[in-house]
Amino acid sequence: MLLEVDHVAKRYRKRDGGEVPAVRDVSFTLESGRILAFLGPNGAGKTTTIKMIAGLVRMDGGDVRIEGRSIRGSGRVAIGRLGAVLEGSRNLYWRLTPLENIEYFAGIRGVPRARARERGMRLLRLCGLEGKAGETVQHLSRGMQQLVAICSALVHEPRILLLDEPTLGLDLDAADRIQAQVARLAREEGVGIVLTTHQMDVAEHLSDEVVLLREGAVVLHGLTQEVTRRLGGDSYRFELEREPGQEQLARLTVRGALFDSPRSFRLLLREPRDFYAVLRDIEPIGVLGAGRDTADLATVFRHYVGNGADGEVQP
Amino acid sequence: MIWTALQAELRRELTQMLRYPTELLSEALVTGIIFYGIFLGSSYMAGGSILGSRLSEIIVGYALWTLMLGAIGNMGWGISMEAQNGTLEQVCVGPLSLRAIFALRSLANLLYDLLLTAMALLLIIVLTGHRIDFSPLEIVPFILGIAVSIGIGYLVASVTVLVKRSNQFLNLLQFLLLFLVMTPFTDLKGPLRFIAVIVPAGPQMGVLRHLAIGQSRFPGEAMWLLLAVVNALLWTFAGYVAYGRVHELARSRGSLGHY
Questions:
Q1: Which class for A40: exposed (0-12), middle (13-18), buried (19 or more C-beta within 10 A)?
Q2: Rounded to whole angstroms, how far apart are CA atoms A43 and A21?
Q3: Which of A5, A55, A121, B202 has the smallest C-beta neighbourhood within 10 Å, fewest atoms?
Q4: Could you say which of 1.25.40, 2.40.50, 3.30.70, 1.10.3470 is the CATH number of the domain covering A234-294?
Q5: Architecture of domain A3-224
């Protein structure tokens, strides 16, 4: 097994001496060439888990094994098999060019310069950035910087790549290029990828499996297709005559309704008779259409997470 | 692995220095002007004639002070800059520990600082026609003094990792360091001599002072050299251990990359 996350847990100490659990109990495994979408609302423990896997945050309980090696014991060797692009972090030296950044990160990970240069140029070519190899990173667009960060994280040929919100704040074109590279890495090079994102379409498009976190614990784990298919039978779409008012909107939000437009929403029903409860929720608005629908990851997310689990847990 | 990483650090430093030559030139200029000022100042103080041996002592002391400051600043200031820029965590994800990477980074910085200082000094010597006496023996306490600064650098880095902002602390530290480097602690008598043994770079500066004024033989020479080694080991070890502890604390708090 490439990556085993085994009942990891983390509590942060608060200033008043109390403790707040950031990750209660998270377990999953990842095989070569697979992409795992690691989802959850803000404060669910995604970034803390990613950082525990990368050895940046010390876990209080559980273990992480990379190719069978625990990061607790021979930690450094195991972590050397990882690459990571962390969220909200620039990840790069802005005064250096993309190729210089790649060479530097390769060097501190033990890759000789000639090999780093060769691999770096190849990675930049694959990302369509060969023409930018000599420009300083500060002059590149945000999307290009993110691609360079991914190249830098890959230059030592890691077996696992951790990507924390890789397409956050990027324009459509840049996000597409990153998604294409992520898919290529997994399918062609066999890299195992753990991807956190709030963009459900990105997760659905890329992932083979999905792990959904809520309040630091796994609430759903399965193959992406299976999860959406399994819940597909319970997914319903409603088309309304007019926009719902505040009260109706509040009731629908509690049920995890996901609006496609102001007058159309989807939701997962726990039981068939809930269908009539939804009709009562939207009363007296007229219903133009209502029926079964195929579930997507966003609907699944809403179903499990709802809207009340947005409590930030920060160290 | 270590050699490849050191090469990477040396290349990174050199590339960044050469990319902005005005910064490099101004740094070289300031170093040159300060050395020139020391030469002129000492001539003036001596009423026209250069203070041969005393000047050597001042120059060696000043050179060591600037190199030590560089090493300490690079650790403390460098770590906070990395955290601020978002590269600190990225550097940590790899087979080498941050502690090892910062040691290599210090070494790379020191080599360039040493080169810059030596060039500035050489230029001033050529321009003024003055000469300073530098015994090859001085290299030993000089290197031991720099080892102390790496230890203090780790301590400053520890403070930086904990409180995240150490610029004011670093400003204060440079004066404290100047005091430590310029004060002849080894001339203290009786039990007070113990101070010379434990203050950072105390014995190193004592030995350097004797060597710089042309005394290749002085009372207690072997003992002071031994104490210089002990002092260097003590401070380097203390810094290394303290940083290791603080790094683990930051990992535990999840605050390593925070700024």
A1: buried
A2: 10
A3: A121
A4: 3.30.70
A5: 3-Layer(aba) Sandwich (3.40)
ipTM of the shown complex: 0.82
To the nearest whole angstrom, how far is the Cα of A2 from the nearest Cα of chain B? 17
Task: Please state, in angstroms and rounded to a whole number, the distance separating the CA atoms of residues A226 and A232.
Answer: 9
For tokens 């792990």, what's the residue? A211
Q: Which of A24, A25, A161, A3 is nearest to A70 (CA)?
A: A3
Per-residue model confidence as pLDDT tens digits over A225-269: 888 877 666 788 899 999 999 889 999 988 888 888 899 998 888
Dist. CA B73–CA B65, nearest whole Å: 12
What tens digit of pLDDT does each residue of A65-105 get? Answer: 999 889 886 667 888 889 999 876 578 998 899 999 999 99
For chain B, list residues whose CB is within 8 angstroms of any CB belonging to chain A. Answer: 1, 4-5, 7-9, 11-12, 15-16, 19-20, 85-87, 89-97, 101, 248, 251-258
Of A297, A26, A39, A64, the C-alpha closest to A160 is A64
Residue ranges of domains in chain A: 3-224, 234-294
